[in-house]
Amino acid sequence: MIKDYRYDIKQQLEGIAVETFCQQHTAVEAHIYGSVATGLALPESDMDLVITGVSSFGISQNHTNDLTVLFDKICESFNSNVLVEKLNLWQTAVPIIKLKF
């Protein structure tokens, strides 16, 4: 049941990313990696997900803007009963969006 729930969240996040970027990017996808992908996840494990197919062509401000738009759309799409914690980390070597469902 937990595995199905995680894959449902993955599908929803991928849908939000595709909808957000479909005008500028044509190959947007979400991919699960880590313990969920290997089947070693425990009920309390997090889910590691990467969105691919969004290219800002090396312009960091465009990339930050894209991530901000994605983050805002994700927050709008889930109510507070489902999305209980959210954080954006743009100043890291690789920008990260952390979500807790």
List keywords for this structure.
two-stranded antiparallel ribbon; 101 residues; 3 helices; Beta Polymerase, domain 2
Word description of this protein:
The protein starts with a helix and ends with a strand. It contains three helices and four strands. By secondary structure, it is of the alpha+beta class. Helix 1 packs across helix 3.
Walk me through the topology.
Elements: H1 2-21, E1 29-33, H2 35-38, E2 48-52, H3 60-77, E3 85-89, E4 96-100
Antiparallel strand pairs: 1-2, 3-4
Helix pairs in contact: 1-3
Order of strands across the main sheet:
1-2
Largest sheet, described in full?
2 strands, antiparallel
Structural class: alpha+beta
CATH topology: Beta Polymerase, domain 2
Compute the average pLDDT. 85
Roughly how many Å apart are the termini? Answer: 15 Å
Task: Output the radius of gyration.
Answer: 14 Å
Summarize the structure.
It is built from three helices and four strands; from the N terminus they run αβαβαββ.
